[in-house]
Amino acid sequence: MLAAGGGLTHTMSCRSCPLVDRREFLLTSAAMLTTLTAVSATQQEARYPVPAADGASIDMRRQVILVRDVGAVYAFALSCPHENTALRWKAREKRFQCPRHESRYTPDGTFTSGRATRNMDRFPITHSGNEVVVDLTKVYRSDAEAALWKAARITV
User: Fold this and answer.
1) Residues 126, 55: Cα–Cα separation, whole Å
2) In degrees rounded to 5, what are phi and psi of residue 2?
3) Is 86 helix (H, G, I), strand (E, B) or coil?
4) Which candidate among 43, 88, 96, 139 keeps its CA 20 to 30 Å from the CA of 109?
């Protein structure tokens, strides 16, 4: 309800509010925290089957490109490092291309031509059984972390 001065007034008594005892509040809060932790843990990594053949697959939901090429597997950020446009895989040419400014990249993410000034960004990855585990909390830029960028691959 609006008061004469334009502010809100509270017309309900706090006696009508449901009371939650301290123990119930703490139990509910703990349960919610556990759920949020589980959700955020799954958002921190992505798991994919090890690709059976050379090529690329794109996970639009997580913004990850997974590539197998000549015995190595890489995980890339979907966006072009030039202006963050989603990259496209050109299967016939075995390369990536940015549809916006025509930057081109090899299957290992190396920049070859166009307006971009660096290689595609790589996620750190590990091999776990028959899966590739991609760490979504980090991304390596070849110009800033060259050694980590080069090491962000697995051999299959």
Assistant:
1) 19
2) -85, 135
3) strand
4) 43
Tokens found for residue 91: 């299967």
* Listed residue (99, 92, 101, 83) closest to 56, CA to CA: 92
Closest CA to 96 of 62, 127, 130, 119: 119
| Beta carbons of 102 and 114 less than 8 angstroms apart | yes
Strands (E), 51-121: 55-59, 64-69, 72-77, 88-90, 95-97, 104-105, 111-113
CA 99 to chain centre: 21
pLDDT at 15: 55
User: 153: which 2 tokens?
Assistant: 């691959």
**Model confidence pLDDT, tens digit, residues 97-140:** 999 989 999 999 999 999 999 999 999 999 999 999 999 999 99
Do 50 and 131 form a contact (C-beta atoms < 8 A)?
yes
The amino acid present at 93, given as its one-letter code, is E
Cα first-last separation, the chain: 67
Domains of the chain, earliest start first? 46-155 (2.102.10.10)
